[in-house]
Write a structure and sequence with these properties.
65% of the residues lie in helices and 0% in strands. By secondary structure, the protein is mostly helical. The longest helix has 19 residues, at 66-84.
Length: 109
């Protein structure tokens, strides 16, 4: 299991995570919670090669923008649905549901 060097500070930065989650919730994003903010921050930090210091982690959490947060959630959602519909059986089920839904909604006037 690949553990980030920042994991050891997870408990120390809980107040910062809570603050950022509350900030996003004030903007109406009720699904924002500490876990999602943490995951988004870890994804953001994976892309950069910076020193592994606690102030870098805190700065990344505090400067996390709402657009970055929503983009990461959207991409994660697409990846999750792609995993689910990657099997032919699940894709056939989805196509069948779509076909059934569209055929029952046709009205002749």
């Amino acid at each position: 299991m690949n553990i980030s060097p920042f994991e050891m500070w997870r408990e120390d930065v809980e107040p910062v995570l809570q603050s950022k989650a509350e900030e996003f919730q004030m903007f109406g994003y009720t699904s924002a919670d500490q876990e999602r903010v943490w995951n988004c921050t870890m994804e953001k930090l994976k892309k950069r090669e910076e020193s592994h210091r606690i102030h870098v982690l805190v700065n990344s959490i505090l400067t996390l923008s709402l657009s970055d947060f929503m983009n990461q959630i959207t991409v994660a959602s697409y990846k999750e649905s792609a995993k689910y519909y990657s099997t032919e059986a699940n894709l056939d089920d989805l196509l069948g549901e779509i076909e059934t839904h569209t055929s029952t909604k046709r009205h002749l006037t």
